[in-house]
């Protein structure tokens, strides 16, 4: 998934049409809100994007209003499910901001990921991040991946000081879909365990 691709040249319209997802659902936005995005050309009029429509709507709403407004989650869901859904959406928007470089939105989603991570178990957090990074529609996104690796690593190190069983529990987690995440976390967990052993020997 790269940045949106041009479909047609400008027809003197004040708006740009962007088609989202495999169904190419169309949404319009004033071209003035896209002027800072590197893939935007003021001579073009229609773009197609591999970003899912629900995430695309969030992006366009933010560009036009300056507000981050994820979809409302049904209050009938349990708190755990609502938290997972909120985190999943926030992660998806965060990942897309590497393709749509909207710096303020990236900071907002990064802070929200940090906040939501405090209310979820480490294993659940790793599972959700793994699911999002393994999505075939998500590109490699090196900067976003590195930030998420560091975020998980910081949480794991802190949690392991309070509960050494956390690392053992994660080492037994064998359902990783994203091999890069698995390798990175394994490397860091081994490093934490070595530190724990060294502290015990002091």
Q: Could you characterize the architecture of this molecule?
A:
This is BTB domain-containing protein. With 202 residues, the chain is α+β, with helices and mostly antiparallel strands. The protein contains seven helices and four strands. Strands 1-4-2-3 form a four-stranded mixed beta sheet, covered by helices on one side. Helix 2 (79-96) packs antiparallel against helix 3, helix 2 crosses helix 4 (122-133) and helix 4 runs antiparallel to helix 5. The chain is elongated.
Please sum up the structure shown.
The chain is α+β, with helices and mostly antiparallel strands and 202 residues long. It contains 7 helices and 4 strands.
Helix fraction, binned, reads: 40-55%
The topology string of helices and strands comes to: EEEEHHHHHHH
Oligomer: single chain
C-alpha termini separation: 50 Å
Protein name: BTB domain-containing protein
Organism: Erysiphe pulchra
């Amino acid at each position: 998934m790269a940045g949106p691709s041009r479909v047609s040249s400008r027809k003197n319209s004040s708006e740009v049409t962007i088609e989202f997802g495999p169904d190419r659902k169309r949404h319009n936005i004033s071209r003035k809100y896209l002027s800072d995005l590197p893939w935007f050309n003021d001579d073009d009029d229609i773009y197609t994007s591999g970003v899912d429509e629900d995430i695309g709507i969030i992006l366009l709403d933010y560009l036009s209003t300056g507000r981050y407004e994820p979809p409302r989650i049904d209050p009938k869901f349990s708190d755990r499910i609502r938290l997972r859904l909120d985190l999943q959406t926030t992660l998806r928007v965060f990942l897309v901001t590497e393709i749509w470089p909207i710096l303020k939105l990236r900071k907002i989603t990064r802070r929200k990921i940090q906040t939501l991570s405090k209310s979820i178990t480490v294993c659940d957090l790793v599972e959700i991040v793994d699911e999002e990074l393994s999505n075939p529609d998500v590109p490699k996104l090196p900067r976003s991946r590195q930030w998420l690796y560091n975020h998980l690593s910081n949480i794991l190190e802190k949690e392991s000081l309070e509960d050494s069983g956390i690392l053992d529990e994660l080492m037994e987690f064998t359902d990783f879909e994203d091999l890069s995440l698995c390798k990175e976390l394994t490397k860091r967990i081994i490093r934490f365990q070595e530190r724990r052993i060294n502290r015990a020997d002091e």
